[in-house]
Design brief:
Elements lengths: L3 E5 L2 H11 L3 E5 L5 E2 L7 E2 L5 E2 L2 E2 L4 H13 L2 E4 L5 H13 L17 H8 L7 H28 L10 H17 L4 E11 L2 E10 L2 E2 L5 H13 L2 E13 L7 H12 L3 H13 L1 E3 L3 E3 L14 H14 L43 H17 L4 E12 L2 E12 L29 E13 L8 H10 L8 H10 L3 E4 L2 E4 L1 H13 L1 H4 L1 H16 L4 H22 L9 E5 L6 E7 L2 E5 L9 E3 L2 E6 L6 E6 L5 E5 L8 E2 L2 E6 L6 E6 L5 E5 L7 E5 L9
Parallel strand pairs: 1-2, 1-7
Antiparallel strand pairs: 3-6, 4-5, 8-9, 8-16, 9-10, 9-15, 11-14, 11-16, 12-13, 14-15, 17-18, 19-20, 20-21, 21-22, 23-24, 24-25, 25-26, 27-28, 28-29, 29-30
Length: about 700
């Protein structure tokens, strides 16, 4: 039977698409790239205008043989790899291998894996876009030149196995710069003054703002005491009252970076985990009663654009589920950043009628949580604003200026389904709005003076690092997750309680890069390269001339670095733990999941041990010490030192406190808005005791 061959990247996508297209199509998966630059050599001929040397990737030979065999029997071959630069390059490589004419209509794009979209896209084949391919080739060649030219210098001057990269070095530099800011930060004292006031029986609390209409910062205890005394003796009058209304608009639907940030803050996902699960939702999940369906649109995008059809269907869902007050008269639209590539829509559900709760049984827990996040973010983006009544009052007396401000929700709007987690502050809580009027006399009650100190900038989380990279134009949606994974794997940064900090190795390598390759770690220079790559994609810049312009100054920097970089000796810290295999005192090493113990006689002795920290809580089963451990996948858990005789383990941090209601064991948990609480493990109780609210941190995790 005659058939057409469709080549996609992943087997999961192949299975989903083959069900839509039927027996007249054969669908094969390339499993990603089939050709690349060789790992054993530079693979770029600098003397021949940076001609790349492509070879078949190890392990792809059998896959290519199968594809060639299928292609020989097909009446037509369609290249349906992912709709981005990398996907376009894979299609071009496949066309080269299969000796296809890339100028013929052989390339199709699936922006969502649904029956309708797949069948529609198949009818709209186009030639391979060589501008997209050239943009990918330029990025690949630039990255190879930087990595393969600088890394050997790091090997010889620092240690084997290190690497440098065009984007990873900038990301490392950003984290190192933040650490320097923290180290050099000098706290400054300040005081917050507030007073309880009563006006005609109405009690309210106001804060000190200034004197004689000028804002005043309270910087010392002496100043605070003087002002407190004046406030206690002053006679106050409400001089100005402003009632108003504040409208809070919904956030736009997700771009890749927004999704990574919000999944980190709300779900605790790493960027890598977010992209892995999002890929599953995009490629297709077997839904009870529907078969395999792609649940979300393409997941690598920096656009907030949404198709009119998708908006209209979501508006219908809103109209059916909520009163007319929740549906704006016209659809909400959002501006996309100037530097964004607008080739794809924002990330949204492929079917607005497919509610998360309705398909929960067909999804894993993490798939459900991420799909729910995407679905309700999109729904909220097409709903009306939340509306708040606001009150601002000024109170004066004895030349002192006090202020009161508050808000109260009048209409919840889009927040009925979704509210974005704030990065840098807590949401302003609702508060009673006292019926104040101008001219009211206000008597003073208790005055509070609270000493505070300015705080250093917080360390980055994965979410805030992704936001910073995006804001500064470093990398693209597809590069954030692998960049963070790489610098952690290399041991340049470590993650403790979701905060990223540089290791000693990271600081040393960054110092070398800053002194010898300032252009590579310069944010403006790297962002400028990204813009030029965008110009290559747009067809207005030749990719070889871009590489040529970069390589001249880079080659000079390499020559100077070879001469001037001195060898750095990084001494391993010796522990007091003897190696179980050879008796040598083990040393501390930094790995992908943090510090561990390793034998110093490597490679003759390869024994390693995980670091275990006593958490100061007795084992509830045997009374022994509970130790903090790492699983094989790097996830933290807590187990008894008496293992294997005592097999008590817990993913949550056990605490010494007992439940005040039932006396049961409690563990520490973190809520969606960053609050820390102790939770009773007794299923019949599950009592919560709030321990800490976030206030000074950068993000509520």
């Amino acid at each position: 039977m005659p058939y057409k061959l469709v080549i996609v990247e992943s087997p999961a996508k192949a299975r989903t698409i083959s069900k839509f297209l039927g027996k007249s199509y054969h669908v094969e998966a390339s499993q990603g790239h089939v050709r690349d630059l060789p790992k054993s050599q530079l693979g770029v001929d600098v003397d021949k205008d940076f001609e790349p040397k492509y070879i078949t990737i190890r392990g792809r030979g059998e896959i290519l043989d199968k594809i060639r065999k299928e292609a020989r029997g097909a009446t037509k071959v369609l290249l349906a790899t992912d709709p981005d630069r990398e996907g376009e390059a894979i299609s071009w490589h496949l066309a080269q291998v299969l000796k296809m004419d890339e100028k013929a209509p052989c390339r199709v794009e699936f922006h969502e894996i649904t029956d309708k979209e797949v069948k529609s896209a198949i009818k709209c084949a186009r030639p391979v876009d060589m501008d997209l391919v050239d943009a990918q080739q330029a990025r690949r060649v630039l990255d190879r030149l930087v990595g393969y030219k600088i890394s050997p210098i790091l090997w010889s001057k620092v240690r084997k196995g290190l690497s440098a990269g065009r984007v990873q070095s900038v990301a490392t530099a950003i984290i190192c710069d933040r650490e320097k800011e923290i180290d050099e930060f000098v706290p400054e004292e300040y005081w917050n003054l507030s007073a309880q006031l009563t006006a005609e029986g109405i009690a309210f609390k106001a804060r000190f703002w200034g004197e004689n209409g000028e804002h005043v910062e309270v910087r010392s205890q002496e100043q605070a005491q003087q002002l407190t005394q004046r406030m206690e003796n002053a006679r106050f009058t409400i001089t100005q009252v402003k009632w108003g209304e504040r409208r809070k608009n919904p956030a736009p639907p997700f771009t890749t970076s927004n999704l990574q940030q919000e999944a980190s803050r709300k779900l605790g996902f790493t960027t890598l985990k977010t992209m892995q699960i999002a890929q599953q939702l995009y490629e297709g999940v077997d839904i009870q009663g529907e078969g395999t369906q792609g649940l979300v649109t393409y997941i690598r995008t920096d656009s907030t654009r949404i198709s009119e059809e998708a908006i209209e269907k979501m508006r219908q869902e809103i109209a059916q589920s909520y009163s007319p007050a929740y549906l704006p008269e016209t659809p909400n639209t959002y501006k996309t950043r100037k530097t964004a590539q607008d080739a794809h829509e924002a990330i949204r559900p492929t079917n607005a009628a497919r509610r998360p709760e309705a398909i929960k049984a067909s999804l894993t827990r993490d798939q459900f949580r991420l799909y729910k996040l995407i679905y309700y973010r999109f729904m909220a983006s097409q709903m009306t604003p939340a509306v708040y009544d606001t009150l601002a009052a000024e109170i004066q007396g004895d030349g002192l200026n006090l202020r009161f401000g508050g808000q109260k929700m009048k209409f919840n709007g889009f927040t009925v389904v979704y509210e974005e987690v704030l990065d840098d502050a807590q949401a302003e809580p609702d508060s009673p709005l006292p019926p104040l009027k101008e001219g009211m006399a206000a008597s003073i009650g208790q005055v509070e003076a609270e000493q505070r100190f300015t705080q250093p900038p917080p360390r980055y989380t994965e979410a805030s690092l992704v936001r910073t990279l995006e804001e500064k134009g470093i990398g693209r949606p597809s590069t954030y997750a692998p960049t963070i994974t790489t610098i952690m794997t290399r041991g340049y940064i470590t993650r403790e309680q979701k905060r990223l900090s540089p290791t000693e190795l990271g600081l040393v390598v960054n110092d070398i890069m800053q002194k010898n390759f300032p252009g590579i770690v310069d944010i403006a220079f790297t962002a400028g390269l990204e813009e030029k790559l965008d110009q290559v994609e747009a067809g207005s810049q030749d990719w070889r001339s871009l590489v040529r312009d970069f390589y001249g100054p880079f080659e000079q920097a390499l020559e100077e670095a070879e001469k001037h970089i001195e060898k750095v000796s990084l001494e391993d810290q010796v522990s007091d733990v003897p190696c179980e295999k050879c008796g040598a005192m083990m040393v501390y090493k930094m790995g992908r999941y943090g510090k561990f113990l390793a034998c110093p006689n490597f490679p003759q002795c390869r024994h390693t041990m995980a670091l275990m920290k006593d958490i100061g809580v007795p084992c509830p089963e045997c009374g022994g010490r509970l130790l903090e451990r790492l699983s094989r996948k790097g996830k933290k858990f807590y187990g008894c030192e008496g293992y294997p005789q005592c097999q008590f383990v817990s993913w949550d941090l056990p605490v010494n406190d007992k439940c005040p209601l039932c006396g049961g064991r409690m563990v520490q948990k973190r809520g969606r808005k960053g609050e820390i609480y102790h939770l009773c493990v007794n299923e019949q109780c599950r009592n919560r005791v709030l321990v800490e609210n976030p206030g000074d941190g950068e993000e509520a995790e």
